[in-house]
Amino acid sequence: MTAKGPGFLGDLPPGHRERLLTVAREVSFPAGMRIFEEGGVADRFWILRSGRVALDTHEPGRGAMVVETLGEGDLLGWSWLFEPYRWHLGAQTRDAVAAYEFDADQIRSAIDEDPAFGLAVTRCVAAVAIGRRLRAARTRLLDMYAPPGTARQARSGGAAP
């Protein structure tokens, strides 16, 4: 498998990208499928090749609230890298999705075996987890709790629930 382009894979150095892709499995999900639930075991992750996935959190009395919508090239799931390996959000497809799937144990072992590979992958995951997702969640929270009639459209690309 070879892939570059925008997103997570494009951010990895070529050798590390190829190493990661050698253990990828191509998968697909139909529209409307629940991929994982908040609090569930994070034992795998995906890099989206096509389609969209909504990340959500359950809010009592309101149900699932969309935090961000992911698309081509995006990393789906970062909780597999950090203990306790539990999903911090839920995920549901918006339309049909094609993705590369990775086994978390296998990638964590590769990270432990090769510090340069581990640093590259960890930096890319942290950029998504700490940078992009935190900003998207903050923007969504501001929109949710703004006074009525003043909510802004989330800049994360997420649609209102």
UniProtKB/TrEMBL annotation:
It comes from the Bacteria. SUPFAM superfamilies: cAMP-binding domain-like. InterPro entries: cNMP-bd_dom, cNMP-bd_dom_sf, RmlC-like_jellyroll. Transmembrane segments: none annotated. CDD domains: CAP_ED. Residues 8-77 form the Cyclic nucleotide-binding domain. This is Cyclic nucleotide-binding domain-containing protein. It comes from Streptomyces chattanoogensis.
